[in-house]
């Protein structure tokens, strides 16, 4: 919104000063000054003011009025909300950066361990949620790191978890563990059927906690059987027997 006023003054600067005072605006809001009549004098006497048209913009003033017109309590609430949003954004970015750095640390340590084993494999983080992390290994030495029935992979996973204390690392090799899970469920059912036919306890080979959990879940569906673990990791194993 544009406003203007005609001011009589001895010069342009005085005209601006008078116009801003009358209209209660600042000099920054003056957009144009036009000289309509020049100031005159007769040999330095009988000076006559000139006439100036001063145009101003009300935009800044309107914004200031809008802000100053806010209820104080509302203004404080808005400010607090903006502060909370900013703080939440900072925390979100910090968590993201922390997660990215944590992933880099896990990949670096996992890769160093593979290098020391002399294996040509790459590491990628599939998922990192809280204190649980799933990483995938891939490369030409897939078969070596898996080993017989996943024993080498289990040993690698166990060693990695002893090095990284604050996060539980689950290591897979291009979907091997899902296939292994199917095999473990089949094994659990076979061993359960075998235990049903004998009074002797059946001992399984040592397994990592994740694999033992699968065996327990399947065998516990047989109401006549009990399962429990003996030994210490990494040689801890499951025992299946009939209930007494």
Q: Could you explain the architecture of this structure?
A:
The chain has 244 residues and is α+β, with helices and mostly antiparallel strands. The protein folds into three domains: 2-66; 105-174, K homology (KH) domain (GMP Synthetase, Chain A, domain 3); 177-242, R3H-like domain (Ribosomal Protein S8, Chain: A, domain 1, 2-Layer Sandwich), CATH 3.30.1370.50. Helix content is 48%, strand content 27%. A three-stranded antiparallel sheet has the order 1-5-2. The chain has a three-stranded mixed sheet with strand order 6-7-8, covered by helices on one side. α6 (176-196) crosses α7.
Which short descriptors sum up this protein?
244 residues; alpha+beta; GMP Synthetase, Chain A, domain 3; Ribosomal Protein S8, Chain: A, domain 1; 3 domains; three-stranded antiparallel β-sheet; three-stranded mixed β-sheet; 7 helices; rod-shaped
Give me the secondary-structure topology.
Layout: E1 2-9, H1 12-23, E2 30-37, E3 40-42, E4 45-48, E5 50-57, H2 59-68, H3 72-116, E6 122-129, E7 132-138, H4 142-146, H5 151-163, E8 168-172, H6 176-196, E9 202-203, H7 209-219, E10 225-230, E11 237-242
Parallel strand pairs: 7-8
Antiparallel strand pairs: 1-5, 2-5, 3-4, 6-7, 9-11, 10-11
Helix pairs in contact: 6-7
């Amino acid at each position: 919104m544009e406003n203007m006023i005609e001011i009589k003054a001895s010069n342009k600067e005085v005209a601006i000063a008078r116009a801003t005072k009358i209209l209660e605006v600042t000099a920054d809001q003056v957009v144009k000054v036009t000289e309509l009549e020049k100031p005159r004098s007769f040999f330095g006497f009988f000076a006559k003011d000139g006439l100036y048209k001063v145009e101003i913009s009300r935009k800044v003033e309107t914004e200031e009025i809008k802000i100053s017109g806010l209820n104080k309590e509302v203004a404080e609430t808005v400010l607090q909300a903006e502060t909370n949003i900013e703080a939440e954004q900072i925390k979100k970015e910090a968590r993201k950066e922390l997660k990215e750095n944590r992933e880099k640390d896990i990949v670096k340590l996992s890769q160093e361990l593979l290098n020391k084993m002399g294996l040509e494999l790459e590491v990628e983080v599939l998922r990192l949620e809280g204190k649980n992390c799933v990483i995938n290994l891939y490369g030409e030495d897939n078969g070596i790191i898996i080993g017989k029935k996943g024993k080498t992979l289990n040993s690698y996973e166990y060693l990695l978890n002893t090095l990284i204390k604050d996060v539980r690392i689950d290591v897979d090799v291009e979907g091997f563990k899902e296939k292994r899970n199917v095999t473990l469920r089949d094994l659990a059912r076979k061993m359960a059927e075998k235990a049903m036919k004998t009074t002797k306890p059946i001992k399984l080979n040592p397994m990592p906690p994740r694999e033992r959990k699968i065996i327990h879940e399947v065998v516990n569906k047989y109401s006549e059987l009990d399962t429990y673990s003996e030994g210490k990791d990494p040689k801890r194993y499951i025992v299946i027997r009939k209930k007494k």
